[in-house]
């Protein structure tokens, strides 16, 4: 069996009395476009920070491409790309200076870093104002630059935390096509997004985290079957992983998500002054 691209055992993170992530066991196969979903505050960003070495776990183990992240952090980080929640760009550099810097940090020679920088700026439609500082970029432009920096070294795994936020429709289509090409070439992509239509369109496998715990994991078809089994028998959706889809009309990912984590507001609930 292939070594998983990403695997965790008992992954846990506490902040004082708060348990943000509890006993999460993830498994992502090489070449998967994997969606990681959950309500606000469920533990998505905390999990990504641990998977990418930005935050140490309180307990548990993380293996990336078969390497123990805690034992071999540099070896892992050379092979992954990350677009984090806050992007963390260097605002006083131009886009070209920033990408060249990132490329060199990943060990690219000057010629290769410069060539890839020019290609990425053109691809991301950021090449028309070469002297503009990153701090003066719009939020959408900064998001595209962060994605360019994450792929400049050709990572084997790409972690994306809300990559399409504030990106216009044209750029969004371009980025989706690029990500699909990366998958076709054997890369693994780990995506979080609140836009479930994007996740459903792009991802082959999904995990759902709720209140810090993993409540479902599998292919979209397995999750559909799991939700159906839960409705019919009361068995939790995660226990039905591996089941097959029945002949009924397919549930959307939004329906799967809401039925898995529970719609916390009554459908007939109204604000008193808007009733």
What does this structure look like?
The chain has 275 residues and is of the alpha/beta class. It is built from 9 helices and 11 strands. It has a 6-stranded mixed sheet with strand order 7-8-9-4-10-11, sandwiched between helices. Helix 3 crosses helix 4 and helix 8 crosses helix 9. The radius of gyration is 20 Å and the shape is globular.
Helix content: 25-40%
Helix/strand/pairing class, anyone? alpha/beta
The number of helices is: 9
- Strand content is 15-25%
Largest sheet: 6 strands, mixed
Read across the widest sheet, the strand sequence of neighbours is 7-8-9-4-10-11
Radius of gyration: 20 Å
Shape: globular
Order of helices and strands: EEEEHEEHEHHHEHEHEEHH
| Average pLDDT, all residues | 89
Got a strand count? 11
Oligomer: single chain
Regions with little confidence, pLDDT below 50 for 5+ residues? 237-247
Question: Termini, distance in Å?
Answer: 58 Å
Give short descriptive properties of this protein.
alpha/beta, 9 helices, 275 residues
Summarize this structure briefly.
The chain is an alpha/beta fold and about 280 residues long.
